[in-house]
Write a sequence for this structure.
């Protein structure tokens, strides 16, 4: 049975194994009478060919409380888009597949470029941002959930537990962040969260001193999870990062815009396994190497925005402090894994720590060298202010693609 510990910064909603998914679903059906709920699935076409996606589709087909599902489809040609539409026909809910690479969508992207408002790079951040824009244009949902499409252990209980805190009319939460144990195939996973984010936040507190923001981030048991639920009133002013800092960026937006009482984390799965990124030691622009750099930059940017002054000496000290704290945590995780009969490779863990330490310095240098860097995609309120017809054009493009490519 899970613990019931509260950290005092944000509310933690545990799974005490005392309610069935059927009971949660019944409640959600009642909530849906006054709060319509939608789901955003940011998806690569390649994920349709994995073992995870058919399972997710089968589980979602059992969900009665969703009003709409929006699938943002990346890296697909016309035939693949047609196949994706056929693939998702099994969903029982109102749904749409937004083909982000269609000529119409690219034309809209070029329009944003001409206005100086285009996302800086393609990827999950842009996918989520586009899907959010489509949902804002629908003007009919009070709650939205977002989760990844590579979850091998997916059940519809994950969605029910994720969306419940925000959908419940008697709860005050405007954002819920999912957490779980990253355990799969008898291994302890989650290297970036365990070996980068946790020791980095500890090291930052040691080097730059107490910051409420650091305590806030440290309150999340799995800050890098891709599972969120939000009230849709947050969406027009939400700043979405375009890089791998998406999850940290959304948490930072909640810190900026919401009171702590409006944020919670919720246990959504006993175990969670999805595809694993390679470490990519030889390519700083790929895999966990790129991810770790982007995450560090996201944290540094937020701290700088709150008044922290960073210098090369600060980053050098931070690297050394991080390295020692990461090795200490690695030992704790090793013992935890062994006690639970899980495999863990000390050599690979330490290689990851060494790469992350180098990338703390790399991220710091990139931060110092690019003081005017603006990694956030413009908010939808800003897009609407610059072009009041853009959301309608986005809807029209998605509908035209759906009608043409049959």
């Amino acid at each position: 049975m899970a613990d019931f510990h509260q950290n005092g910064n944000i509310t933690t909603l545990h799974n005490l194994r005392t309610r069935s998914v059927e009971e949660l679903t019944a409640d959600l059906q009642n909530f849906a009478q006054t709060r319509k709920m939608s789901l955003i699935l940011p998806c690569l076409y390649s994920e349709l060919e994995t073992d995870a996606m058919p399972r997710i589709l089968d589980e979602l087909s059992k969900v009665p409380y969703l009003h709409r599902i929006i699938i943002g489809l990346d890296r697909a040609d016309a035939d693949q888009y047609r196949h994706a539409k056929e693939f998702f026909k099994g969903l029982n809910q109102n749904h749409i597949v937004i083909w982000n690479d269609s000529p119409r969508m690219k034309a809209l992207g070029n329009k944003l470029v001409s206005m100086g408002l285009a996302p800086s790079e393609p990827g999950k951040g842009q996918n989520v941002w586009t899907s959010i824009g489509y949902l804002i244009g629908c003007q009919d949902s009070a709650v939205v959930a977002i989760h990844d499409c590579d979850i091998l252990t997916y059940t519809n209980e994950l969605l029910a537990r994720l969306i419940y805190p925000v959908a419940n009319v008697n709860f005050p939460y405007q954002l819920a962040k999912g957490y779980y144990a990253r355990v799969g195939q008898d291994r302890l996973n989650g290297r970036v969260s365990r070996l980068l984010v946790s020791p980095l936040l500890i090291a930052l507190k040691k080097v730059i001193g107490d910051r409420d923001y650091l305590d806030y981030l440290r309150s999340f048991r799995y800050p890098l999870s891709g599972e969120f639920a939000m009230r849709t009133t947050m969406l027009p002013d939400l700043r979405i990062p375009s890089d791998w800092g998406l999850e940290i960026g959304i948490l930072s937006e909640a810190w900026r815009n919401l009171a702590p009482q409006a944020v919670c984390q919720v246990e959504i799965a006993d175990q969670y396994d999805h595809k694993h990124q390679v470490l990519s030691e030889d390519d700083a622009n790929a895999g966990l190497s790129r991810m770790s750099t982007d995450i560090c930059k996201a944290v540094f940017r937020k701290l700088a925005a709150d008044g922290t002054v960073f210098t090369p000496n600060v980053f050098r000290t931070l690297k050394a402090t991080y390295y020692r704290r990461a090795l200490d945590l690695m030992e704790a995780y090793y013992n935890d894994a062994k006690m639970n009969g899980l495999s863990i490779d000390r050599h690979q863990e330490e290689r990851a720590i060494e790469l992350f330490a180098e990338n703390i310095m790399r991220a710091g240098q990139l931060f110092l060298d690019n003081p005017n860097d603006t990694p956030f995609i413009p908010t939808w309120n800003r897009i609407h202010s610059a072009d009041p017809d853009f959301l309608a054009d986005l809807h029209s493009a998605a509908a035209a693609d759906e009608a043409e490519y049959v």
Remarks:
- The two ends are 49 Å apart (CA to CA).
